[in-house]
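queue> holo job accepted (adenosine-5'-diphosphate)
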Amino acid sequence: VLPTLTFMVTYLVGIVMQGSTPWGPVGLSPLGFYEVFVRNISTYTNPLTLSLTITTAAVYVASPALTRLVRGWTSPVPAVLLASLASLIPMVPMDPALTQGVQGALILAASSLPISYAGSWYVNSVDVLPMLYGSIADIPDKDTLIKYYREDWETLIGLDSAKRELIIASESFRGSGVRPIHGVLLYGPAGTGKTALGLGYTAWLGLYRGFRVIVVKAGRLMRGGPWEAAWRLEKVFQLARALQPSVIYIDEVDSIGRAREEAGAGGYRLVSVMLQNIDGVASRYDKVLVVATTNNVNALDEALIRPGRLGDLKIYVAKPPPEMVKAIIVGVAQQRGVLIPPWLLEKASGLIETGAEAEALVNCLAIKQLAGVKDPTQLDACLAGITRGIEAYNTSQDMG
Ligand SMILES: Nc1ncnc2c1ncn2[C@@H]1O[C@H](COP(=O)(O)OP(=O)(O)O)[C@@H](O)[C@H]1O
Ligand SMILES: [Mg+2]
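queue> job finished
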């Protein structure tokens, strides 16, 4: 509908700009119309109109905020108007005077698009462009995947059984007679490595199983409220299906998948979109995997964590036992080339509770090491800052 409307409005804009109708609308094909349009409008358009058009088009395509306004659930009218203006770009450079200089280069670049396709191209592209340019989701390239794999998967210590489970689950995408799993949920307390594990696994799927990786930014997705988020999430899944086999990674999924009873009508719609796309009639046999993490599994809608959805593989990532805490500190210190005095290691192993805290301690020690600080009070301050909060940290700083 939108491309058709766009086309009609473009037609009307042409009439207004020319002040007359030198061609009859009856019996003219879209391509024929555009050809006539190009021939006619090129002699009438002035540079001011032109730059206005280009600016409008650029802003329209580039700005997620405007796109949201235009292509949210509100109204298609501004979209049609703007896309109509945008579609005028390729029609103008017939006038040789306009093909010179920077402006000319811009116009020529724009006009390399198939002319009859321009209107619908603009309308369709705004669906996907904001996503590809990183405002809703990232599609990491191979180098980025390697980085995620090295820094998030390989550096994790003591999560071997979780890793093994994840790798085994991916076999469901290879065999015949097996339904590919639809979802993986990593849940548990904060700081236990869920985000790193999920992203690392996603990268592994991309590097070793040929999956296209789509990393959703939940915060950005939710901007503008649940109705728009639902619309955007639908786009993410559309893209994922087009690129399958693919994996969608959603960190902190509880921001999207809150229980429907508490989320209001918009939230209800958002969860429904998620359910339909993970395990709906149409999506059942797609090779699209959703990997999600949460610190708050109780907030999630129950339907989301059933088998066939995110509940296909639920992995609880627990806080490590004290011996493991020690191993994590030692391991991370080794990875970073940081020396940790035995007394501090002993003390820290009793106080630190999660991998994230261990990492923060090692990082703090790494900074001191770089600065050449060896004073035990100062090294101890690193630990105090992590385990006892800001106030304790300040006190021990004063002492040092
Ligand atoms: N078991 C672990 N081994 C090594 N590093 C860890 C471990 N757990 C957490 N970390 C470190 O802590 C950081 C934060 O962990 P994160 O994945 O954000 O935790 P969560 O998402 O569960 O809150 C990670 O980037 C990682 O460097
Ligand atoms: Mg996290």
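queue> The CA atoms of residues 150 and 290 lie 21 Å apart.
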